[in-house]
Amino acid sequence: MPQYNPPIRDMQFLLYEMLDAVPTLRALPPHADVDADTLNAVLEEGGKFASQVAAPINLSGDAEGCTLDPVSHAVSTPKGFTQAYAQYVEGGWPSLSCDPACGGQGLPLVLNQCFYEMLNSANQAWTMYPGLSHAAYEALHAHGTPLQKATYLAKLTRGQWTGTMCLTEPQCGTDLGLLRSKAEPIVGGVLDGSYRISGEKIFISAGEHDLAENIVHLVLARLPDAPAGNKGISLFVVPKFLINPDGSLGERNGIYCGGLEHKMGIRASATCQMVLDGAVGTLVGAPHKGLAAMFVMMNAARLGVGNQSLGLTEVAYQNAVAYAKGRIQMRSLSGTKAPDQAADPIIVHPDVRKMLLTARAYAEGARAMLMFTTLQLDVLLSSDDDAEKREADDTVALLTPIIKAFITDNGWIATSSCMQVFGGHGYVHGSGMEQFVRDARINMIYEGTNTIQSLDLLGRKVLGDNGAKLKKFGKRIAAFVEEEGVSEAMQEFINPLADLGDKVTKLTTEIGMKAFGNADEVGAAAVDYLRVVGHLCFAYFWARMAKVALDKQNSGDPFYTAKLATARFYFAKLLPETAGLIRTARAGVAPLMEMDEALF
Amino acid sequence: MPQYNPPIRDMQFLLYEMLDAVPTLRALPPHADVDADTLNAVLEEGGKFASQVAAPINLSGDAEGCTLDPVSHAVSTPKGFTQAYAQYVEGGWPSLSCDPACGGQGLPLVLNQCFYEMLNSANQAWTMYPGLSHAAYEALHAHGTPLQKATYLAKLTRGQWTGTMCLTEPQCGTDLGLLRSKAEPIVGGVLDGSYRISGEKIFISAGEHDLAENIVHLVLARLPDAPAGNKGISLFVVPKFLINPDGSLGERNGIYCGGLEHKMGIRASATCQMVLDGAVGTLVGAPHKGLAAMFVMMNAARLGVGNQSLGLTEVAYQNAVAYAKGRIQMRSLSGTKAPDQAADPIIVHPDVRKMLLTARAYAEGARAMLMFTTLQLDVLLSSDDDAEKREADDTVALLTPIIKAFITDNGWIATSSCMQVFGGHGYVHGSGMEQFVRDARINMIYEGTNTIQSLDLLGRKVLGDNGAKLKKFGKRIAAFVEEEGVSEAMQEFINPLADLGDKVTKLTTEIGMKAFGNADEVGAAAVDYLRVVGHLCFAYFWARMAKVALDKQNSGDPFYTAKLATARFYFAKLLPETAGLIRTARAGVAPLMEMDEALF
After folding, report:
1. Which residues of A touch B172 (CB under 8 A)?
2. Could A580 and B579 be called an inter-chain contact, meaning their C-beta atoms sit closer than 8 Å?
3. How close does chain B come to A14, measured CA to CA in Å?
4. Cα(B20)–Cα(B13) distance, rounded to whole angstroms?
5. What contacts A284, CB < 8 A, 6 or more positions away?
6. Contact across the interface for A175 and B330, Cβ inside 8 Å
7. How far is Cα B343 from Cα B331, in angstroms, rounded to an integer?
């Protein structure tokens, strides 16, 4: 069974050494009292929950999956899942970064992000249940009426109830404009002002389960007078059990699970077909403005998906390292390394190291980028300085699609590499390695496919504002290059970073010009473009990490030696992928559209 | 459920238009009478068997898997597998390319290759059973004693019995020198001259099943006087049921299935832990020379594994195309394409086309390379001209590791892309798409991991003979470049091909020089190197296909239009990956070995 050791040292390195997060956080009114001791204590305890409670039920949960009782529509989660959830609630974990006004602990998002990374390493499927709840909490917190907030937020904060996002329907996933679910106003009676909602939703994570007494569904549907397309979609809150005026649970609502999907991975996460048959709900936010309200959740969720792949990359790496040190097979080509054994441990082989270091560099790069971005999110949510907020908003907007797509693509590459280290043993369920790969695969699809992320980045975030957000982030990189460019020791990192920055600028201009002539040029270049910009971000964060490590390399702490070696690996063996990607991005749309549809 | 339509037109294009295979085959004594009608008839009938018999039980076989009765040690294959196998035997398919002296039809290997591609598209897991049999047939045909041949070959040729390769043990996979199974000579009695073999084997495909009345295991084990390591391994044939002198089945032999692996994919293929408890076997080939005899099988098997990924790539492509034409979602960025529908079919989006064309270009490139190579194998096996045989031998030796690793890596990329076209629907079992991805993953591992293939290519096949085999193949490319370089229309294909050829020459020399100083430089560069050379091969075959298509583009047959468009896509969007790979190959060993093992 796979093992998991929370990477707390690396999180602390990023928090205190690279990001210098404590002063940043203390400058924000809600976090004025935060200190390293608090953060460290949460990381330690969170790591224990992840490694000791969530991790041990990951492999068994995958083998067992969820089951649906077709008569009662009840869904049972795998053995141990309800107990783990009860411990999670008991430990107060759901409330970590929730609003103190709703009973939350009000701790920074960057800390919650670290906690979720550990949960995702331990058990991505289990983590879907609390993760979706948190998204529902955020949507109601931002858009709910006072009554809705009073009804739901404390229960969600405590974890007593969980939440869902009900968007997708059989005929629409990416294109929510095609949505058909209907909401009819109820006039008169005790439910006056509510709506009866009918329709069919699919791919609803945590849509039904046995972890909590009630489930708070956030449902997209159309009002009777709704305009067609995206502009006629409203958001409703639809509880599994109606709530009595005293807050107690009332009647079972007309929303139930009609089927479970049998999936490639995250098999212990209940992916439900949900049937709404006149389910009673109330409107969240303004009529026809549901998509905008939902997008608040979706942006947070996209960062969360990147974090899922970070978690999987980390845990896959740890287990592959342990295997590579223990498995003996063949001799090193450069001479025997373990003469007392019948063969050398496979970690002596350069390509085994390459597979391991690929995962390591992708995990540590992703962690740096995610923690940086989540700290910006803390600034955005809690700063009282409008200019600082706008700056943070632009940064988060730009980096969100990159985090979602680049980190999940890397997670697929890295978990697969780590599985490869195990040879045939990695293909077998008991190793846990193939599960990491299967679980990682969904992250490239849900919350907007990675193609959609690339269009969001290139079309909306970059070309859509004439490159302003990208230029802002580029200035940040340029300032770092300027400052560190004087250091001899930093040249090996600064030069390729600066070079790639120049190339991104040229590439952006070139695609932007071509897009004037043909909008499909955006779609043709977007995926390659996102990957190039992803590497630019990683190069920036790796250079920043290298800078700290260089400063401390004589401290005697081997952590910095390893960090520097991993940085060098990243620049030598991963970043050069951009040479090919820039070429294919520049190759444009013609080679894609030349063939008539009928000839495919 | 996925559909499959055998790509017979493309196979015919390669056989008759690109390879001009009929004259080549007819020059070989055993194939002097072969003609296109025969080949076409086999392709048609083989395609029917694949699409109508093997394909319909692929998805259900994956869901059901195999089961082991722990008392009787019997393994049951999924529903429909035995019936399909019976039809396969009845149709005479096992004998297609077997020696007429053993009851075979003696048809060319290149035809068998096409048939197996179709079987692999239809059902890779089912195809493992006959596939392994054929490998056992080949080993006994090449190395068996007259008595062994008389005992086994006709039964294997008919498919009445199946075969296995029993190599791997828990402590050794790649490094067979660590093998522990023992063979003790039996002296006296009716079994005089036989051996009693004991040990534990793992990952034995088709090690036990209910398709055939007997199973012929080829087992590696050590004789009592065996030297340590690779040079002390002998090959034995160990039947599940001993064979009486009259050829009838005798006593149950002491080899049985102790467990089945639960795997990521090919779940309907029985992957058995085999226990040998004094099982009776006879020696195949010379004592201590078992590995050499087994490598004959392994080389053929490596081509077969490439063919498995070709099959999966093709079928994944076909199903993704059908989905992309039928699924409507969003409008084209360059303007509405299907005004009568609520949205456009997703095939209008450039990145969807990129995912589809990636699979198409990798499938058609792989088919060209595999059919070219298998035709060379026909020459090697059947020519009466020694120079021609040597030439073919060198070509096959060079291309085998590339086919195994490059095509299976591409298969992983391509099946994953095709799954991505389906969005969330591809992650669900019923689509069949995620199964293609899971099945494709094993091909990068078994029959020598892709890292091992890369070391075989760079270390043994290229540097090991001072580049002679590579130069020979390079001459073939240079001749084509020379000949077609005069054509204006061919410039777009010839120039990048010639350019990449030059770069490979330089890269090879550079790595070779560095390897003098440090043998680990080979291991550090090998995987990137193989992928670069793989693209050189694909560029060559795509240029050859483009040449035929250009010559016939005015024929009115849209097949050639599509071939040309796919060739252009390959050169514009896939081949440029080499720019990054050459950089990482050149980055050498230092970034991999800098970090101390303890710091991982």
Report:
1. 329
2. yes
3. 18
4. 9
5. A139, A140, A143, A144, A145, A148, A218, A235, A236, A237, A290, A293
6. yes
7. 5
Q: What average pLDDT does this structure show over A369-378? A: 98
Q: Using one digit for the tens of pLDDT, what is the confidence trace for B394-445?
A: 999 999 999 999 999 999 999 999 999 999 999 999 999 999 999 999 999 9
pLDDT at A296: 74
Which residue bears the tokens 């004693």?
A: B145
Q: Can you give the pLDDT at residue A300? A: 86
Q: Do B350 and A178 touch (CB under 8 A)?
A: no
The nearest alpha carbon in chain B to A453 belongs to B351
What confidence tier does A297 reach under pLDDT thresholds 50, 70, 90?
A: confident
Chain B residues lying within 8 Å of A343, measured CB to CB: 175, 177-178
Using a CB-CB cut-off of 8 Å, the residues of chain A touching B439 are none
**Considering the entire predicted model, what is its pTM?**
0.98
Whether A249 has a pLDDT exceeding 80, the answer reads yes
pLDDT under 70 in chain B at which residues? none
Amino acid at B252: R
8-state DSSP, A27: T
E strands, A126-254, are: 161-166, 182-185, 195-205, 214-221, 234-239, 241-243, 249-252
Interface probe, candidates B318, B333, B415, chain A, greatest A C-beta count within 10 A: B333
- Helix (H) or strand (E) holding A320, with range, is helix A290-326
Query: What is the ipTM, given to two decimal places?
Result: 0.98
From chain B, the residues in CB contact with A434 under 8 A are 263-264, 441
Say if the Cβ atoms of B423 and A321 lie within 8 Å.
Answer: no
Q: CB–CB of A549/A564 below 8 Å?
A: yes
Which of helix, strand or coil describes residue B570? helix
> How close A333 comes to chain B (CA, Å)?
6
Q: Encode pLDDT of A504-543 as tens digits.
A: 999 999 999 999 999 999 999 999 999 999 999 999 999 9
For residues A451-463, b (16+ Cβ closer than 10 Å) or e, as one string? bbbbbbbbbebbb
Give which of B124, B349, B351 to mutate to test A binding, by max A Cβ within 10 Å.
Answer: B351
- Please give, one letter per residue, the 3-state secondary structure of B243-301: ECCCCCEEEECCEEEEEECCECCCCCCCEEEEEEEEEEEEEECCCCEHHHHHHHHHHHH
pLDDT of A293 reads 85
Which amino acid, one-letter code, is at B161?
W
Q: How far apart are CA A106 and CA A269, in angstroms?
A: 28
Q: Are A238 and A219 in contact (CB under 8 A)?
A: yes
Cβ neighbour number for residue B336 with a 10 Å cutoff? 12
User: Which one of B305, B451, B514, B521 makes the best mutation probe of the A interface by having the most chain A beta carbons within 10 Å?
Assistant: B451
Q: For residues A414 and A359, is the Cβ–Cβ distance under 8 A?
A: yes
Confidence of residue A298 (pLDDT cuts 50, 70, 90): confident
Give the integer Cα–Cα distance in Å for B50 and B45.
9
- Which token pair is A72? 């009662």
Catalytic site residue from B138, B169, B314, B447 = B447
Read off the pLDDT of each residue in A9-20 and give the average, rounded to a whole number.
98
**Per-residue tokens: B155:** 């039964």
Compute the nearest-CA separation of A422 from chain B (Å): 9
> How far lies A356's CA from each of A332, A422, B390, B548, in Å?
17, 11, 40, 44
Quote the minimal CA–CA distance from A386 to chain B in Å: 35
**Nearest beta carbon to residue B520 from set A334, A345, A347:** A334
pLDDT in tens, A145-182: 999 999 999 999 999 999 999 999 999 999 999 999 99
Using a CB-CB distance cutoff of 8 angstroms, which residues of chain A are in contact with residue B442?
Answer: 427
Buried b (16+ CB within 10 A) or exposed e, A550-575: bebbeeeeebbbbbbbbbbbbbbbbb
CB contact under 8 A, A576 and B566: no
